[in-house]
């Protein structure tokens, strides 16, 4: 065989042993068929039972068989999953020794008595707290009521004092006004009386007899006295009906008939009737005059109730 020239095309050399290669292939196939027949015959035999006892607690997985050859590229191996170890075997506690029924009953009774005692103590504690709270509330209410009553009493006392002071002040004011009025009336009456006396004295000194001389002399005219009593009767306010009552008064008046004084000479025995006569006399000023226009400076009149109806 000649070698190829440098730079020329490559040529496959010609095979000269073709018969030998075919014989070898037939021999190989025959051997393969023999092995297949033997293998099938061996698989049909009855299997032999084998027993094995494993003492090791750890279980290991058998290695997997090698995969057949594959022209394709092998995939990347997956990460191995670590299996957790099996749980430890549960250790059972040894059975407790049986208790004597009598002892168990005594223990139950003792426990029940202790529970009842604790319950009674708790109830007593709660009751004591409730009683103390109720007493505290009652005390607070009593204190509040006492305080309110004291404030009310103080306020009422203050109002009473203010009223008493106001009444006393009003009373003093009324008394002062009454006194001032009485003084003014007395001064006016004294002034009028002095003027009348001066006039009478002056008339007497001249030796003349005028109206004043006529008013103080002689006997009281019956018609004149009746006219005065009639006016006083018209102003009398008295509701009692006792005909035995009778009072006498001396009335002092000015020439104009104005009353400047009265004096009780006989009491009727009834203060109410006497006061009614005095009020009626005061209201009747000025008193009526005589027919000639004169008056009596002092005139005494009897006021019998049976005549004053």
UniProtKB/TrEMBL annotation:
What are the entry keywords? Membrane, Transmembrane, Transmembrane helix
Start and end residues of each stretch annotated as Disordered: 61-175
- TM ranges are 21-42
Specify residue ranges for compositional bias: Pro residues: 82-92
Q: Which InterPro entries match?
A: Tol-Pal_TolA
Ranges annotated as biased composition (Basic and acidic residues): 112-175
Q: What is this protein called?
A: Cell envelope integrity protein TolA
Species in which this protein is naturally found: Duganella lactea
